[in-house]
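Example for tutorial group B:
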C-alpha cells in the first residue's frame, strides 16, 4: 500500500451529506477521497424537483445534484466511482476495501451511504419489480402516461411523487394505512386538491395482481372495516419510507433498533475517527438540507480528529527516533 492509497479522509457516499463533507474537507486542506458507486446526488436523483433547499425556491433534483457535484469538483475533490465492500476500523488508520480489490487507508472516514426505499413485503411485489412495481416516479413515471397508477404511503415522498405522477398518469389512487397524511401541510393541501388523485384511506395492499406482461391490479384491505376490494392499475409506486444503508457499518458500531447509526453532536460514531452524515444517522429530520449540514459537521470534526492524530503520530516518530 503506497502513499497514493493513503488519505486523511475517505468519504463513502456521494449524496448531499458526502458532497457537503467533501467541500468542507477540501477547505480544511485534507487529502480527501469521495467514493460513490452510483450517480452523484444520492436519493436526490430519485426526486423530480426540490422546493425546500435554502436559496432555491424551486430547482429540479437533477440540477441540484449537478450543482452539488460541481461545487465539490471546483475544490478539486478526488472522486472514484467504485463500490466499497468493507470498512475495517483501525487505531491509526481505517481500511476501506473496494470491489476492484484495492485497499485504501485513511485516518478518518465519513459514512454517508443514505437509505434505500422500504418494501411493502406484499405478494407480487418482488416478482413485478420493473414490470409495474416501482420505487421511483421520476425514473419510471414516463411509462405510465395516461395510465392508472397506485401510490402507497402518506409521507412527504408519497405526496411529492403522487403529485408528480398526477402530471403524467390518467388517474392516481393514493393508498394510505391511516386516515391522515403524514406529509407536511403544504404537500397535504396540494395532494387533497389534485383532482387526478383519489385517496384510499385506512387501507393497505394485500396482493399485487399481475399477468405475464406485468401489474394489472391490486387487492386492497380496509383496516377499519376488514373489507377487501380490487383496483385495476398498471403500476404500483411504493413510498413508505426508507431503510438505512448500513451494510458497511463495522461490527461494534452503535446503531439504534432501526439500524440507524448513533452519533454525537460532531457526527462521530462510537468508533473514533469514523463519522456518519445524512440519512444513515439517527436524527429527527431527514432532509437534503440536514444531510448537507451533517456533511459540514462531520468534515469539520474529522479535520480536527485528523490533525490531532497526525500530531500524535509525529510525536511518536520523534520519540522513537531519539
Ligand atoms: P416517511 O415520512 O417515513 O413516511 C412513510 C409513509 O409510509 C407514512 O405515511 C407511513 O404511514 C407509511 N408506511 C410506513 N410503513 C408502511 C407499511 N409497511 N405499509 C404501508 N404504509 C407504510 O417516509 P418518506 O415519505 O419516504 O420520507 C422519509 C424522510 O424524508 C422524511 O423525514 C421526510 O420528511 C423526508 N422527505 C422530505 C421531502 C421534502 O422535504 N421535500 C421529500 C421526501 C422525503 P404512517 O403515516 O401511518 O406512519
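The residue assignment follows.
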Amino acid at each position: 500500500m503506497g502513499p497514493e492509497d493513503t488519505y486523511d479522509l475517505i468519504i463513502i457516499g456521494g449524496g448531499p451529506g458526502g458532497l457537503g463533507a467533501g467541500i468542507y474537507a477540501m477547505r480544511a486542506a485534507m487529502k480527501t477521497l469521495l467514493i460513490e458507486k452510483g450517480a452523484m446526488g444520492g436519493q436526490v436523483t430519485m426526486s423530480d424537483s426540490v422546493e425546500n433547499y435554502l436559496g432555491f425556491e424551486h430547482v429540479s433534483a437533477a440540477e441540484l445534484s449537478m450543482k452539488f457535484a460541481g461545487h465539490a469538483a471546483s475544490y478539486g475533490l478526488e472522486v472514484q466511482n467504485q463500490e466499497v465492500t468493507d470498512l475495517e476500523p483501525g487505531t491509526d488508520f481505517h481500511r476501506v476495501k473496494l470491489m476492484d480489490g484495492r485497499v485504501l487507508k485513511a485516518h478518518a472516514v465519513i459514512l454517508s451511504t443514505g437509505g434505500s426505499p422500504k418494501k411493502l413485503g406484499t405478494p407480487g411485489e418482488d416478482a413485478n419489480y420493473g414490470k409495474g412495481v416501482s420505487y421511483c416516479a421520476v425514473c419510471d413515471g414516463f411509462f405510465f402516461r395516461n395510465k392508472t397508477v397506485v401510490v402507497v404511503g402518506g409521507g412527504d415522498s408519497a405526496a411529492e411523487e403522487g403529485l408528480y405522477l398526477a402530471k403524467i398518469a390518467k388517474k392516481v389512487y393514493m393508498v394510505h394505512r391511516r386516515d391522515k397524511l403524514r406529509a407536511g401541510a403544504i404537500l397535504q393541501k396540494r395532494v387533497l386538491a389534485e383532482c387526478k388523485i383519489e385517496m384510499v384511506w385506512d387501507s393497505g395492499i394485500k396482493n399485487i395482481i399481475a399477468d405475464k406482461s406485468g401489474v394489472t391490479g391490486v387487492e386492497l384491505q380496509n383496516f377499519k372495516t376488514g373489507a377487501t376490494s380490487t383496483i385495476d392499475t398498471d403500476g404500483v409506486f411504493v413510498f413508505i419510507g426508507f431503510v438505512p444503508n448500513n451494510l458497511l457499518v463495522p461490527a461494534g458500531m452503535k446503531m439504534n433498533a432501526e439500524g440507524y447509526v448513533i452519533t454525537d453532536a460532531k457526527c462521530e460514531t462510537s468508533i473514533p475517527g469514523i463519522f456518519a452524515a445524512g440519512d444513515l444517522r439517527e436524527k429527527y429530520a431527514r432532509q437534503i438540507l440536514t444531510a448537507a449540514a451533517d456533511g459540514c459537521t462531520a468534515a469539520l470534526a474529522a479535520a480536527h480528529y485528523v490533525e490531532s492524530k497526525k500530531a500524535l503520530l509525529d510525536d511518536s516518530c520523534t520519540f522513537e527516533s531519539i
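The mean pLDDT is 95. Compare this with the pattern of hydrophobic and polar residues in the output above.
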